Amino acid sequence: MAEPVVRVPDAKVALSTASVYPESTATAFEIAARLGYDGVEVMVWTDPVSQDVEALRRLSDHYGMPVLAIHAPCLLITQRVWSTDPWTKLQRARAAAEKLGASTVVVHPPFRWQRQYAREFVQGVWRMADETDVRFAVENMYPWRYRDREMLAYAPDWDVTKEDYRHFTVDLSHTATSRVDTLAMVDRMGDRLSHVHLADGNGSAKDEHLVPGRGGQPCAELLERLATSGFDGHVVIEVNTRRAMSNAEREADLAEALAFTRLHLASAARAPGAGTISGAPATGTAPGTSAARTTPGDADRPRQPRRPDPVRRAHHPDPSREAPRQ
């Protein structure tokens, strides 16, 4: 009888630089390398290092951490980063991705008050995508809520599946905040889903970005679905650690998120005569037990020694908030 083996899909697991706030972009590279992430997604925001392609290249080379995605500066606090013109922001994000070897630019739909940009957005993103191999993955957002009032802040819509985009990003904290059926949204995205922001939430009006497994979102189910569907994009841990009481607590949260993701991306498969898993003796153990932790690149790899950053560290405003604090 064939032994079950662990099959890990091609999807890489990256750390969003926003996940280390209030620490810097440089710190995100260091932590990602030490914990064994496959790369980083750079949130371009008020940290000068996040805006500097050459500084990012030095960090990537220093820590051996590839930049897998660029998150364009489209938050409220980044309205003046790179430019006040939203199309210029996307052009610079694409140029940064091309120079750094990133495959994806994550972009939010426009704010409703960006009227001209919103009118041209769907066609404009298609036009830019035709000019590059970089994927422009448009991210689902959510209505802003305060008590019993709701404001639709994004146009054409916070539910990006209502429009015809070539590529999508699904963010599970945003699906929690918008109180939609996450897997139904993923079904609507279909094979155009190319990027995942993995986090959790409980449906609060606040965009929570909890560690996966600590809220009510189907994080495990989504990962298991990706593992069996031929998904070839990236899974990015984008969680909120700003309340961590210490660096050790922050790193523990990020290590837990990585372990959760790798565990559920591993799926049971049967291969005739398979007796080993990545060189280890087969035990017939199902994913989720110790055998799953023997897959290459998991969170149990030897930790890298701490090295000094090649660029200056700084503290900056929180990039993880879209709506004002409730």
Written overview of the protein:
The chain has helices at residues 25-35, 48-51, 53-63, 86-100, 115-129, 172-178, 182-189, 219-228, 247-265; strands at residues 4-7, 12-16, 39-43, 67-71, 104-107, 135-139, 144-146, 149-151, 167-171, 193-198, 234-237, 267-270, 276-277, 280-281. The chain is an alpha/beta fold and 326 residues long. The strands form four sheets. It has an eight-stranded parallel β-barrel, surrounded by seven helices. Strand 7 and strand 8 (149-151) form a beta hairpin. The N and C termini lie far apart (57 Å).
What are the key terms here?
disordered C terminus, alpha/beta, eight-stranded parallel beta barrel, two-stranded antiparallel ribbon, 326 residues
Strand order of the largest sheet: 2-3-4-5-6-9-10-11
Straight-line distance between termini? 57 Å
- Given as residue ranges, the uncertain stretches (5+ residues, pLDDT < 50) are 268-307, 312-318, 320-326
Shape: globular
pLDDT averaged residue by residue:
84
Helix content: 25-40%
The helix tally amounts to: 9
Question: What is the string of SSEs from the N terminus onward?
Answer: EEHEHHEHEHEEEEHHEHEHEEE
Percent of residues in beta strands?
15-25%
Largest sheet: 8 strands, parallel, barrel
